[in-house]
Design a protein that fits this description.
This protein is mainly alpha-helical. 44% of the residues lie in helices and 8% in strands. It contains four helices and two strands, in the order αββααα. The longest helix has 18 residues, at 52-69.
C-alpha cells in the first residue's frame, strides 16, 4: 500500500507503470496505465514488460544494508535508498569519473542541514 501512495505522489500521471502480480499493486490501475507480470508464469512479457530494473535496485539496496551498513535507521532510510538509486544509475561509469564527481560535489556544496551533526547524533 505504501508503494502505491509513493507512486501516486512522485510518478507523473499518465506514465506507464509495470508491476508484478501482487494484489496491492491493483490500486495502480486506477491512476496509471499498468503492465503486469505474473512471475509464476514468466519473468517478462514478449512485448518488453518487465520489473527487472526495480528488482535489481531492491536487491542491491538489501545487499548494501546487510553487507555494507549492517544497520539502517528508519530516520535515514530515504538517504540510503537515494544513495542506492544513484549507485544503480551510475554503476557503469568508471571509478575516476565517480571519484571526481564526489570530490567536486563535496567541495562546492553547502553544509547539509539534514546531515550536519549526524555523527554527533545532535541532528
Amino acid at each position: 500500500m505504501e508503494g502505491v501512495a509513493i507512486a501516486n505522489a512522485v510518478v507523473e500521471h499518465g506514465s506507464m507503470m509495470f508491476a508484478d502480480e501482487a494484489s496491492h499493486w491493483d490500486l495502480l490501475d486506477t491512476t496509471f496505465d499498468c503492465g503486469r507480470i505474473n512471475h509464476s508464469e514468466r519473468y517478462s512479457e514478449l512485448n518488453g514488460k518487465h520489473t527487472n530494473w526495480v528488482e535489481s535496485y531492491f536487491s542491491r539496496l538489501r545487499r548494501m544494508v546487510s553487507g555494507q551498513h549492517h544497520f539502517v535507521s528508519p530516520k535515514y532510510l530515504h538517504q540510503y535508498a537515494t544513495h542506492a538509486a544513484w549507485c544503480e544509475d551510475h554503476r557503469l561509469e568508471c571509478a575516476k569519473t565517480l571519484t571526481q564527481r564526489a570530490l567536486r560535489n563535496a567541495l562546492f556544496s553547502p553544509v547539509s542541514r539534514e546531515l550536519k551533526g549526524y555523527w554527533q547524533r545532535a541532528a
